[in-house]
Amino acid sequence: MTKFRHKVFDDRHLTRLKEIMRAVCADFETDLVEFNGDGEHVHLLVNFPPKVALSKLVNSLKGVSSRRMRQDFPDLVRHYYRANKLWSASYFAGTVGGAPLTVLRQYIEQQNRPG
């Protein structure tokens, strides 16, 4: 979620965020299975081994994407406020154990459709 839930992303931002986050996941030897988002937040489905600390992965995803988005899209700087951070400090992570990937992908794809 963006800082203060400001709607800052359009399609070109989300496309670039997906590329950045896929690269960060690769650096952690994890797999970005699904990505979706809207103006103020993103949803990620990441397959990662137990050796990867979730908090470190999330911190890297947020830190790297914030830095690279600021470099690639200078117009976003007005949304960074005083702290120079694009993202809020919070995040939600859930485990999905045996759920089929098709069900999870469908859930993420439907997150931004009007009810």
UniProtKB/TrEMBL annotation:
Pfam families: Y1_Tnp. Coiled coil: none annotated. It comes from the Bacteria. SMART domains: Y1_Tnp. Residues 1-111 form the Transposase IS200-like domain. Gene3D superfamilies: Transposase IS200-like (3.30.70.1290). InterPro entries: Transposase_17, Transposase_17_sf. NCBIfam families: transpos_IS200. This is Transposase.
